[in-house]
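Bug #2210: token dump truncated for Orotidine 5'-phosphate decarboxylase?
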Amino acid sequence: MTSTFGERLSRSIGKYGPLCVGIDPSPRLLADWGLPLRDFSFTVLEAARGVAGIVKPQIAFFERYGGRGLLVLEELCTAAIEQGFVVILDAKRGDIGSTNEAYASAYLSTDSPFAIDAITLSPYLGVTSMLPLLDAADQSGRGVFVLARTSNPGGEDVQCATSATGQTVAQDLLDAMSRRNAEAARRGVLGSAGVVFGATVPTDGHDLRAMNGPILAPGLGAQGATPADLAKRFAGCGDRVVVTVSRAVLEAGPDPASLAKRIRLLSDECREALEHVA
Ligand SMILES: O=C(O)c1cc(=O)[nH]c(=O)n1[C@@H]1O[C@H](COP(=O)(O)O)[C@@H](O)[C@H]1O
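Reproduced locally. Full output below:
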């Protein structure tokens, strides 16, 4: 790819706003909509087209169907990229270095079978173990979102524990991504090494501004966060936040017009909340 993930993401946020449509085909929604996995997924993509610029399929909902599900995911990612979406694959990968090399060739290399822009990573085997993934992303113009502070209750047990540096584990991860984004910062563009920071959790004691990378913020809607929370938590970095929403979008389906209407409404709310605090 000729541009970096950070550059493509910035352009997309500028054009469509910060909303990312989460494609989470849960068993309940598939039953409610009365659609098979492929039709469900493409219905969501079609509804998002021209309304939101970013989509995030959650791999577990496709893995449930084994090889057939992964084929649908591959088709969906390819179609989304061809249609100009920024595609974040939510796979939360992370292992020892040699296995991460295999994950890197699966998801973050130029010849990866999955056409995606970025992937979510679980960093709890250590930052050094993630180097094959971070380097592959840099080389192929892709990006990562490392779980720093997750949206779920109880995440603080690990993420807010004090590390050997005397700060929280989450802040250490923010610092590590900040170092990865230093070159982009010198060029005055958004870096490609992002973090996940839930819209449901306080940011106190964590410096999101210095990182120069994108922030994937789940939690709006079904997990209880509101647009006011976005404005409060992400002041000073609102132009780099990607607000990912799954259930609060998908509950408006399966009618494509209702889905598109919900996406537009949430997109407007998120843009409004964040543009004042950029
Ligand atoms: O990485 C993620 O996307 C993620 C991180 C996190 O801390 N919390 C979180 O909810 N997510 C994902 O974001 C989506 C949230 O779904 P809703 O709560 O339905 O909007 C799900 O696909 C989760 O797996």
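Output looks complete on our side. The domain at 5-275 is CATH 3.20.20.70 (TIM Barrel). Marking as cannot-reproduce; reopen if the truncation happens again.
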